[in-house]
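Protein modeling request. Please complete all fields; requests missing the sequence field cannot be processed.
Requester role: graduate student
Desired output: 3D structure, token encoding
Chains: 1
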Amino acid sequence: MPLSLQNQTLLPGRNFIGGEWCGSADDRTLSVADPATDEVFAAVPDSTAADARRAVDVAHAAFPAWRKTPAKQRAQIIKRWNDLIVSHVEDLGRLISREQGKPLAEGKGEVLYAASYVEWFAEEATRADGDVIAAPVPGRRMLALREPVGVIAAITPWNFPAAMIARKIAPALAAGCTVVCKPAEDTPLTSLALVRLAEQAGVPPGVLNIVTASRERAAEVVDVWLDDARVRKITFTGSTPVGKHLARRSADTLKKLSLELGGNAPFIVFDDADLDAAVDGLMVSKFRNGGQTCVCPNRIYVQDKVHDAFVDKLAARVGALVVAPATNPAAQIGPMINARAVDKIERHVKNAVSRGARVVIGGERIRNEQCPGPNYYAPTVLVDVDASMDCSCEETFGPVAPVTRFSTEADVVAAANATPFGLAAYFYSNDVRRIWRLADALESGIVGINEGALAAEAAPFGGVKDSGYGREGSRYGLEEYMHIKYVCQGLLD
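Delivered output (493 residues):
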């Protein structure tokens, strides 16, 4: 079925370059499918290197004027963008649900989450102050000034098509940078809709540009930006292998990088924890977006004394989850993004079972009258999981909760840190001394203590080790789009 919105102009179906909506240089298109049915319902340009280069040309040309635009004026434009996003929450939520698959309530929730970043950075635009440095000798004035980096290339993932665009583009615009962007091939429509609203908010031509591309042509587009010295920063959310490739390819032009990469988050439940609160926290953090988030708990450790009680409570909650398309108002878990995602989930579960894990609930694909498409997987709880299993070593990126029993604090800290990744970590305990020991000991950029919902526009989001570097959100996120210029004036006496 075609997608019908109250505001059909949110479906431009074109690239946006230099203030114009246009097709790809060779007029090739990319199909967009509904993951609930695999039905193709829209098409966007399948862009070329020429399109990517033209986007840089206009962004580079627009940069001098945009950087000189007063911060208050930039803030007003970004605030209007926020207001337009909020006023279109219903349409944008439906759009996200249709192309990404998440339930409509989650889709609309993501729109408001995205808007929170736009509003935050609209306010931060006027706070990007520098410093006056105390001079070590008489007759000298020393200043540290913050300036925009320049042209930014943003490469965004499919799991949060609105939030990731907002979290990258809003601070870039606030800092005075211009932007070229490539959204994920699975979910380009939401990104194009947000750019349409930015255009309506008054973002000048050339300041914000977006090109869409298929999986096959993504490297062709992004390589242009990696090789172009006019692009001064890459901001990317996605897999660690791709992030490392971007870092290597950026070396020749010494670009600034923000890389929010893969995770393998531990979720630790101690025997002094509030078990009901721990189950609540795990349900929020593990099963949001069907488990398709980079901060989802991927390894769940529960202490011996409370293991069985925790698993019983968890299985009861997981078994009550409603799996259905986004069109079903009762849906809590939608389809996975595509067949590759379901294949990986199935492989992880089969590998765990073959190595001794036991399925408590779920553990199979779903295809029935309520879920007629091929991309559904039952919410699953596994027990007797160990570190040798694929689900402990790789991100499953699906609704699978693998539980491992542990005995001592020292053992679980060692296990939690025994991964090359370090994006998020969670633990539940009521022991104050343990809380601060764990907060220090866990090798992670984000730590949730008795809390499963971590992200907020005012907080820095990012990882360590193979989970990347740089931060998004908060005042630290704005600094990622700026550099420091030291100015020294003498002969003042």
